Amino acid sequence: MEMLDEEHETLPQPRSDTNIYNLGTINNHNVVVAGLPKAGNCPAATVITQMKMTFPNLKHGLLVGIGGGVPVKTDHGMIRLGHVVVGEPTGIHSGAVQYDHGKATAGQFELKGFLNSPPTALLNAGREVSVRRQRIDHDPIWKKTQRIDTSRPHLRRFKFPGVANDYLYQPDYEHRQADASCEDGGCDPKQRIERPRNELNEAFVTVHRGTVASGELVIKDAMKRDNLARKLGVLCFEMEAAGASIDFPCMIIRSFG
User: Nearest-CA neighbor of 64 among 94, 17, 32?
Assistant: First the structure.
């Protein structure tokens, strides 16, 4: 909600629509914001279907959330903690691929899950924002994130963990406690991969563009992540795009925090 330039009053909606909406404007565009009840393609598809029923004049969508980044290098450097990936057509891919959808033939898995490309209007808008950011000294994206007062107790979880907590471990290293931080879980610091910190500028958000992988699986295995990334040429993994973009033109935006 902090990204809205102006907030509007809620409007009546059908009883069959169980979504909760926040209305407002961003740069003079009317915007409808809805959250998902849980992660996954099915919840995303349900939310989009109900949203289109209540707001039939919606033109485009932005699927914004968190994802699992792949530690690879792009034109903007290595993908790191706090960076953003925008789904954009590259090579044979449309900007997003459903990596767990296909058919098994002769001991191989043939991928069939290529998703629709983002609308041209959104691709052009994204390029325009990129050009403008290159011409100014301050970052408008970072400035807007400062609207979130992370000093408040209930908003602290949205605070950027900081460069000091940007750890990358060897792909074959098994973390001792999956649900705990590396420091609390006692992970071996000798297994960390040394990376230069001068690439990071916390006051300027790095945005990468390329293919996003969508599926129902939570990728916790670094070796599986890297193998899929090499095979598909993806920059990050997420769990909703396949459900949201089937019947609704949208652009995928994911961050890693």
Answer: 32
Q: Which domains does the chain show, CATH number per domain? A: 61-149+161-255 (3.40.50)
> Comparing C-alpha atoms, which of 244, 239, 235, 234 is closest to residue 63?
244
Cα-based torsion angle of the residue sequence 232, 235, 238, 244 in order, rounded to the nearest 10 degrees: -80
Q: In which band, very low, low, confident or very high, does the pLDDT at 199 lie, cut at 50, 70 and 90?
A: low
Amino acid at 213: A
Cα–Cα distance for residue pair 208/234, rounded to 1 Å: 11
Q: Which of 137, 146, 115, 130 is nearest to 249 (CA)?
A: 115
How do 21-26 and 6-8 pair as beta strands?
antiparallel
User: How many residues does the structure list for the chain?
Assistant: 257
Mean pLDDT over all residues of the chain? 88
